[in-house]
Design a protein that fits this description.
Blueprint: E1 5-7, H1 12-20, E2 26-29, H2 35-40, E3 48-51, E4 60-62, E5 68-71, H3 76-80, H4 83-88, H5 90-97, H6 102-107, H7 110-115, H8 121-124, H9 176-183, E6 186-191, E7 194-199, H10 200-203, E8 222-228, E9 236-242, E10 253-265, E11 268-279, E12 286-287, H11 289-293, H12 302-312, H13 324-340
Parallel strand pairs: 1-3, 2-3
Antiparallel strand pairs: 4-5, 5-8, 6-7, 6-8, 9-10, 10-11, 11-12
Helix pairs in contact: 5-9, 12-13
The structure holds flavin-adenine dinucleotide and iron/sulfur cluster.
Iron/sulfur cluster binds next to helix 8.
Length: 347
C-alpha cells in the first residue's frame, strides 16, 4: 500500500472541501471494507484519505411524508436490524442480511455500500487488461480481460455501448442496492455546488464507453443519506439471492420482488402494484418498468410471472461462461415473485 495523508473532518462542508482540494488524489473512507482492500491491491491509490466517520450522518429519521431517511454512516447491520426498517422495509433488511458476513456488515456503511466496486477478477489484478481500472500505466493495460476470458460472474444485460462495442461486462455487486432500486430510494448528496438528490435508478450507470465511472456523482460530492419512500411493500416481498455457496458469497443472480395484492373477487387476489429489480446481471441494479406493468391487473400465477421474467431479460446476452445466467435469472424471477405472493415458502 502506498503512503497517504489522513484527514478527519467533523463537518460535511469541511469533508467536501478536503476532497475537492485534491479531486483526483483524495478519497472518502467510511467502513473501509472495500477501499482498503483495493488500496492493498494497488487498484486504488489515493494520496489522501478523508475519514468521514466523525460526520453527523449516523442516524435513522422518520420523514413527514411517511418515508425513512437512512444516514450514510449508519452501518449495514444497524440498518437491517432497525425496528422501522424491519417493520416497514423488510425487503431492504433481507437484502442487506443476504450480503457479506456479520463482521463486515458491522463495519460497512450505507454510503460505502452504494460505492462498492465490481468483483470482476481482472479488475483486481493490475497485470491484466481492464478498461474500468485503466487510467494510466501504473494501473495496467487497457482492454477487457473478462470479455474473452473467464466471465462466469459477469453481466448479461446493458453491456453494449452506443456504437455497438462492448468495453466492460462487470456487474455491480451490491445486494442492498437491488432492494433500494425496487423501493425507488433517493440518494441525498452534498458537494461543492450544494445539495441535490439523485433517484437510485440514475445513481449507478451502464458502462458504455466510459466504464471507469460507476455512478453519476460529480467530483467532490459526498452521499449524506438515502431516503426511502413511504411505501415499503411490507406485506408481499422477497429477496432471492443465488450464489455458488449458501453464505458469504456475492450473487450470481439476485431478485428483489415486491407486490401489492388486492382481493378482487371470491376467486382470488389480483396484483395492484409490482416492483422487480435484479442484481448480478448488469453494471447497475436492473429494473424495467415494462416488465412490472405486465404484472399489474393480473392474478399472481407462475405463468404471469414468467411473462414478466421474459420481459425483464429481453435483450440479454451471454459471453460464454455466464450464458447460464439468462435461464437462471428467469427462473429466479418466477421463484422470487412466487415467494413474494406467498405461493412458495421462503427458505
Ligand atoms: C469478503 C467480502 C464479502 C462481501 N460480500 C458482499 C455481499 O455478498 N453483498 C454485498 O452487497 N456486499 C458485500 N461486500 C461488500 C461490502 O458490502 C462493502 O465493502 C461495503 O458495503 C462498503 O462500505 P464501507 O463503508 O466499508 O465503504 P468503504 O470501503 O469505506 O468505501 C467504499 C467506497 O465508497 C466511498 N464512500 C464511502 N462512503 C461515502 C459517502 N458517504 N459518500 C461518498 N463516497 C463514499 C469511498 O470513497 C470508497 O470509494 C463484501 C465485502 C467483503 C470484503
Ligand atoms: S469486465 Fe470491466 S472490470 Fe472486468 S476486466 Fe472487463 S473492463 Fe475490467
Amino acid at each position: 500500500m502506498k503512503p497517504f495523508q489522513y484527514l478527519r473532518p467533523t463537518g460535511v462542508d469541511a469533508a467536501v472541501r478536503d476532497l475537492t482540494a485534491q479531486p483526483d488524489a483524495a478519497k472518502f473512507i467510511a467502513g473501509g471494507t472495500n477501499l482498503i482492500d483495493l488500496m492493498k491491491e494497488h487498484v486504488e491509490q489515493p494520496t489522501t484519505l478523508v475519514d468521514i466517520n466523525r460526520l453527523p450522518l449516523a442516524t435513522v429519521e422518520e420523514l413527514e411524508d411517511g418515508g425513512l431517511r437512512l444516514g450514510a454512516l449508519v452501518t449495514n447491520a444497524d440498518t437491517a436490524y432497525h425496528p422501522l426498517v424491519e417493520q416497514r422495509y423488510p425487503l431492504l433488511s433481507k437484502a442487506i442480511l443476504a450480503g457479506a458476513s456479520a463482521q463486515l456488515r458491522n463495519m460497512a456503511t450505507n454510503g460505502g455500500n452504494l460505492f462498492q466496486r465490481t468483483r470482476c477478477y481482472y479488475f483486481y489484478d493490475t497485470s491484466m487488461p481492464c478498461n474500468k481500472r485503466h487510467s494510466g500505466p501504473s494501473q495496467g493495460p487497457a482492454g477487457c480481460g473478462a470479455l474473452h476470458g473467464y466471465n462466469r460472474i459477469h453481466a448479461i444485460l446493458g453491456t453494449e455501448s452506443a456504437d455497438g462495442n462492448v468495453h466492460c461486462i462487470a456487474t455491480h455487486p451490491s445486494d442492498m442496492c437491488v432492494a433500494l432500486a425496487a423501493l425507488e430510494a433517493v440518494v441525498r448528496v452534498s458537494g461543492p455546488q450544494g445539495e441535490r438528490t439523485i433517484p437510485i435508478a440514475d445513481f449507478h450507470r451502464l458502462p458504455g464507453d466510459t466504464p471507469q465511472h460507476d455512478n453519476t456523482l460529480r467530483p467532490g460530492e459526498l452521499v449524506t443519506a438515502i431516503d426511502l419512500p413511504a411505501n415499503g411493500f411490507s406485506h408481499y416481498n422477497s429477496y432471492l439471492k443465488l450464489r455458488d455457496r449458501a453464505s458469504y458469497a456475492f450473487a450470481l443472480v439476485s431478485v428483489a420482488a415486491a407486490l401489492e395484492l388486492e382481493r378482487s373477487d371470491a376467486s382470488g387476489d389480483q396484483i395492484s402494484a409490482a416492483r422487480l429489480a435484479m442484481g448480478g446481471v448488469a453494471h447497475k441494479p436492473w429494473r424495467k418498468t415494462e416488465a412490472e406493468a405486465l404484472l399489474v391487473g393480473q392474478r399472481p400465477t407462475p405463468d404471469v410471472f414468467g411473462r414478466a421474467a421474459d420481459a425483464l431479460l429481453d435483450g440479454a446476452q451471454g459471453y460464454g461462461h455466464n450464458t447460464f445466467k439468462i435461464e437462471l435469472a428467469k427462473r429466479a424471477i418466477v421463484r422470487a415473485l412466487s415467494q413474494a405472493a406467498k405461493l412458495e415458502p421462503t427458505e
